[in-house]
Amino acid sequence: MAAMVAKRSLCRMYVLSTVSPASTQLFRQAACCYSSTKHPFQGGEGSGSSSPTGHLTMSSSSKQLSTADIKKIPDAEVRKSVFISQSNDVFTNLALEDWIYRNFDLTHHHILMLWINKPSVVIGRHQNPFSETNVSALARNGIELARRNSGGGAVYHDLGNLNCTFFMPRARYNRKYNLTLLTRALYREYGINAELSARDDIVLLGKKISGTAAKLGQPNAYHHCTLLVNSNKLHLGASLEKDNVEITSKATASIPSPIKNLVDVNRTVNIQQLLSAIGYEFLRTPATQLTDGGRELLMKQRGFQLINPTDKWFPGITELRENFASWDWRFGKTPNFSVQKSIQLKSAGAGAPHHQQEMKVKVDVEKTIKMSYLARKGPAVYSALGKWAYNMAGFNQYGLHRDDCLYENEDVKEAIRRLPEKLKDERNFRITRALHLSMTKTILPKEQWTKYEEDTKYLEPYLQEVVREREEKVKWESNK
């Protein structure tokens, strides 16, 4: 399959026998490919469609059927495809998932997308990343943090984890059908007897091997889930370990569960063979009935397609990916929350011995950060609190100053314009260096971090001057 990927951007495969470990080889030998040199918008065989994979899009369909009409469509008129993403980038695969959901007409065509990501943590749409993982530790270890468009809890992905997304019309959404199809594939291919839990997880010997979530819209819906094949459980546990702070939030919280890899019960399980088995099970099963249609049904389907998620095939997917990778989506969508942490302070009076005092600091986080002080006022308290909040922000690890990070409204822009050339050059250098560090997912050596005591508010005098002039101008004009 890897050799085919190098020569083809899109590939169709047909399976010619019953699934078994031996038949997987036959499955690969029976692959029938067509060249990607065809223009991506020519459509598939006889489809007359302008979609990148030759399937109907919502804009090209003649009309949108009602829920009742969709439910009346017989299974014999519904075709199926298995899409295999050739990307291991979590943001690209989330964008591909969203593109299909937004654009495809699934009325007579159901899709199973199979995809694998490099190490990453994916949280639900309504979750708080700081409640689900240690965000700073993920960044240090080069593990991406992503937010998906569906609900549910946080999950860890790596190359030992297979992701499955079922696309169908909202009227045909059936979560148990999809999950049962997966358990049937596991049993048919490996003799593994997995079950569905009351929470619609797939469990094996009492431990979770698959989590599940869904996006229900109109007219389309999708249901996606994971399958732990040979995931690194040490990295999984460390990536989902939370920071040692108390967080109060209305965000959806994950429910921890003991997990198991499929290789823990059958060492012969591997990603590529399992991918083939699940795709085969999907294609040989009618759209609404969990019965075996066998070779006859399978040969009527649209088969397997290797998908290259680029703008050439999916116009606008790069912009979708940028949205999923943006700070505004991953962190800015976090529901309001509060963080509380205890700090040990040392204090001493004149001639008195040192003694420790505990102070609790509460940070209320909305669109911006505001501080609530739950401690006795005093210089020592404010100094310790300020230093803690400064280091917590993290910008100093990139060599930035506080005034480098101000939101650039019109007042700030004017203040920057008034800076002396030397200060302006120093500011530009710090910001350019920080952008480079961010792109390479690194930070400065600790001895080069900006220190709280040395961070001067170089922009503040100029900003105060700009604000004062603006207020005077408004006052003057109001008195005319």
Automatic annotation (TrEMBL):
Per UniProt, residues of the BPL/LPL catalytic domain are 106-290
One GO BP on record is: protein lipoylation
* Cellular component terms (Gene Ontology): mitochondrial inner membrane; respiratory chain complex III
> Which PROSITE patterns does the protein's record reference?
BPL_LPL_CATALYTIC (PS51733)
Membrane topology classification: Peripheral membrane protein
Q: Where in the cell is it found?
A: Mitochondrion inner membrane
Instruction: Offer an example of a GO molecular function term for this protein.
Output: lipoyltransferase activity
Q: Which UniProt keywords apply?
A: Electron transport, Membrane, Mitochondrion, Mitochondrion inner membrane, Respiratory chain, Transport
Biased composition (Polar residues) is annotated at 52-63
- What pathway is this protein said to act in by its record? Protein modification; protein lipoylation via exogenous pathway; protein N(6)-(lipoyl)lysine from lipoate: step 2/2
- Please list where the region (Disordered) is annotated: 43-63
**Principal subcellular localization:** mitochondrion
**Record's InterPro entries?**
aa-tRNA-synth_II/BPL/LPL (IPR045864), BPL_LPL_catalytic (IPR004143), LipoylTrfase_LipoateP_Ligase (IPR004562), QCR7 (IPR003197), QCR7_sf (IPR036544)
Which residues constitute the signal peptide according to the record?
Answer: none
Please report a single Pfam family linked to this protein.
LplA-B_cat
Please give the family membership noted in the entry.
Answer: Belongs to the LplA family.
Self-association or partners: how does it assemble?
A: Component of the ubiquinol-cytochrome c oxidoreductase (cytochrome b-c1 complex, complex III, CIII), a multisubunit enzyme composed of 11 subunits. The complex is composed of 3 respiratory subunits cytochrome b, cytochrome c1 and Rieske protein UQCRFS1, 2 core protein subunits UQCRC1/QCR1 and UQCRC2/QCR2, and 6 low-molecular weight protein subunits UQCRH/QCR6, UQCRB/QCR7, UQCRQ/QCR8, UQCR10/QCR9, UQCR11/QCR10 and subunit 9, the cleavage product of Rieske protein UQCRFS1.
UniProt protein name: Cytochrome b-c1 complex subunit 7
Q: Which organism is it from?
A: Anopheles epiroticus
